[in-house]
């Protein structure tokens, strides 16, 4: 009986390399060894695939998952529960989902760390620019007051040379104006950095550095977990390959032994007849 070709092959190009059949996606050229489940899952996640085709394969995946869950529930109801080993419960699809989830979480954590670093730099630049603006405003205020004082001095000398009656008024302005001009503004005094403000700023900076370090350690933990799962996967794969090679070699030895026995039996039968 010839198995019916699946609808997923309408969106893949087939290429044969030796004994393997490799399928290439027509939209993003992603390659898969002949496996209908993986091919259908890829069509549900392909970024270049049309939306209607993607929704179709997503529905197919959901229906298959529902059927498998229902069959598992039926079997669990019929048969007593047995503890299965951890290695048998981990399948290729679960490993693929785990790699994809770990890649997304790692990229998300890297983005959050970068955003926190940019936020700290932005706050530092804002604080320094605000302090520089305050000092610049104070400098401009003192320059303006000194210019006004010089202008008043010039007008006072001209008035004293021309009219002697106005000298008393000019002297009065000279005697009262320096106290009002050379007094520092209140805004400059309030914006001066104090020890308490410096301590608060240092505590905030330390807190941000601690959060950044915690995020970096979390990223390292995720990477180590990913390496551990990869190592376990490679270990299981290598053990399976070694076991398969051993079984194949033993089958070859068994066939060779049977062939030798049949040849010996054929040689003995004519001699016994003679």
TrEMBL record:
Basic and acidic residues biased stretches: 68-81
Name of the protein in its database record: Uncharacterized protein LOC108625150
Recorded superkingdom: Eukaryota
Region listing for Disordered, in residue ranges: 60-88, 255-274
Segments of skewed composition (Polar residues): 262-274
């Amino acid at each position: 009986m010839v198995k019916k070709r699946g609808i997923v092959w309408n969106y893949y190009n087939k290429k044969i390399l030796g004994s393997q059949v490799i399928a290439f996606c027509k939209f993003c050229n992603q390659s898969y060894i002949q496996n209908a489940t993986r091919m259908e899952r890829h069509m549900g996640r392909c970024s270049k695939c049309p939306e209607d085709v993607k929704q179709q394969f997503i529905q197919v995946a959901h229906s298959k998952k529902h059927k498998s869950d229902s069959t598992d529930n039926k079997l669990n109801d019929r048969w007593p529960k047995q503890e299965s080993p951890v290695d048998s419960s981990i399948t290729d699809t679960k490993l693929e989902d785990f790699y994809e989830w770990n890649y997304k979480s790692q990229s998300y954590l890297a983005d959050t760390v970068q955003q926190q670093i940019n936020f700290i730099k932005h706050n530092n630049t804002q604080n320094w620019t605000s302090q520089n603006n305050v000092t610049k405003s104070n400098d401009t205020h003192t320059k303006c007051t000194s210019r006004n004082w010089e202008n008043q001095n010039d007008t006072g000398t001209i008035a004293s040379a021309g009219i002697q009656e106005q000298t008393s008024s000019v002297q009065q302005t000279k005697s009262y104006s320096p106290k009002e001009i050379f007094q520092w503004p209140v805004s400059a005094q309030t914006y001066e950095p104090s020890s308490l403000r410096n301590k608060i700023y240092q505590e905030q900076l330390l807190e941000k550095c601690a959060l950044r370090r915690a995020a970096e350690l979390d990223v390292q933990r995720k990477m180590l977990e990913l390496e551990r799962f990869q190592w376990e996967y490679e270990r299981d794969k290598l053990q399976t390959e070694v076991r398969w090679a051993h079984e194949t070699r033993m089958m070859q030895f068994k066939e060779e032994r049977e062939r030798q026995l049949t040849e010996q039996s054929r040689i003995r039968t004519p001699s016994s007849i003679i």
